[in-house]
Amino acid sequence: MLGIFNLLPYLKGWEYKSHVVLRTVQNGAAPLNLLSIDESGWLLWEGVVTDDAYGTLLVRYQGADLQTREDRLYPEAARVIRAFAQDPSGWLQAYVRPNPYSTAGLYYGIGFSGGFQGSAFPYVPTILMGLYLDPRSTQASATVMGIAQVIAITDRKLFIQSLRRVLDANASLKIDPALLTIGPAQLQEVKEK
Amino acid sequence: MSHEIAGELDYALLKRHYDCDDYTSLRVGGATFLNGIPFTVTEDYYVVGTFAYISDPTVPNFERGWTLFTHEQPAAPAHMLPFLAALGITTWPAQLPSFEAKDILFWSDQNAWIRFEGGSRVQHFIPQNTYMRFHRRHFMFWVQSDGVNGVLRCWIEG
Question: CB of B100 within 8 Å of any CB in chain A?
């Protein structure tokens, strides 16, 4: 079934973006909130590259009513459920841990939205990214890199107008201002014909 | 060395083709100073990879499974003390370069007892002049005599 995700090549006002954060984090310290972006779009996938099995990427994003959804991504969680190199929804691509008594190693885990199958996590309007090292780590500190690959709507008005034109060549380009606002909004009532 | 990895399965390891090896010996310039671990009634320990590292300090390789192992012992193994003294080494590091043994072959010239990992784990009896093989994965093992001092030889892969 053709969804809006598949129509994106014909639309205007969007672009791919990679949001990347990289820090050395201390064991047990509060999450470092490193990136806060006002942006709408789709979260395609998120990834964590780290030298500790408990190096964690924290991603918060909002829905249409500004409720917040939170993802916490760390390699050990995926190993526990044996989610190795699955596609599209799972996740652990590399797990090199030579010493079972130490959480040090080399890890790469990703969280897919299933975007390549035609769906992605929508977010409106904020994406927050943080990093931390869970106290279950045996290391005092670790390096963690977090990645969020998104499809960002860079021009909301143009995006809606182009969508209308793709679906209907004679479509009106008038836009209810409520569609351009962030968060809960009241759409204009239109009289029935 | 080759690796064929698919779906996180490392077929070399699956077939027990290991990347690391160790043998409890100390040879310098063709002369043998140690050929096996001398053991007594006082239990002694050995961290896998110690003599491989002493023989070649460049051997530790993260991708081949080498790591820093915290042995949690207050002092060096007794059988190491003469060599450490000769080298002028007075402090014993809390962490040693090590790899996880996956195949170990024991031979002892006297009856001995060994145990893996912890100082209170079950002891396995090693009859004298008998080869005993284990596939117990471990970083450290312990050895103790059955009353008569002897030497324990250990061929280790992992």
Answer: yes
**Residue ranges of domains in chain A:** 12-153
Express each pLDDT in A135-167 by its tens digit.
999 999 999 999 999 999 999 999 999 999 999
ipTM surpassing 0.90, yes or no? no
Interatomic CA distance for residues A34 and A41, integer angstroms: 20
Of B8, B67, B69, the CB nearest to A84: B8
Burial of B137 (0-12, 13-18, 19+ CB in 10 A): middle
Q: Which of B8, B68, B70 sits opposite A85 (nearest CB)?
A: B8
Residue B68 sits at the chain A interface (C-beta within 8 Å): yes
Question: Do the Cβ atoms of A23 and A34 come closer than 8 Å?
Answer: yes
Least confident span in A74-83, A126-135, B125-134, B141-150: A74-83
Q: The CATH number of A12-153 is which of 1.10.3720.10, 2.60.120.1390, 2.60.40.2250, 1.20.1250.20?
A: 2.60.120.1390
